[in-house]
Amino acid sequence: MIDAMACGAVLIASDQTCVREYVEPGVNALLVDFFDFQALADQTLTVLADPPAHRHLGEAAARTIFEKYSLEISLPRIKEYFQRVAASRGVPSLLLEKLVKTGTLPVVTEDPRELARKARATDPPWEQ
To answer: pTM for this structure?
Structure first.
């Protein structure tokens, strides 16, 4: 769907939440009820009968993808996200010993309080 929008195709899609993340009905695409196959067919025939009248939808779809999801927009967001994650202090999970079967993973310490101390936590979360 996103590739079609980026290419400037006139999009006729089912009215679903995941589609509405990208589509503004009547502005950059046409939406029909998910279960109404007749409406989908009718809308498709309407667009095919007069492509120039619907070309603005394809142009708006391409603009939407360029303005919100192009590399120029997405890469700085992704970079900022990874920088934020890398800058945050990682804290080891104190629940590991409760979630993993004994003997299946090497354990740093047998004492959960010692692990909590190393993680700069006062008590393991299951004892709070």
So the answer is: 0.63
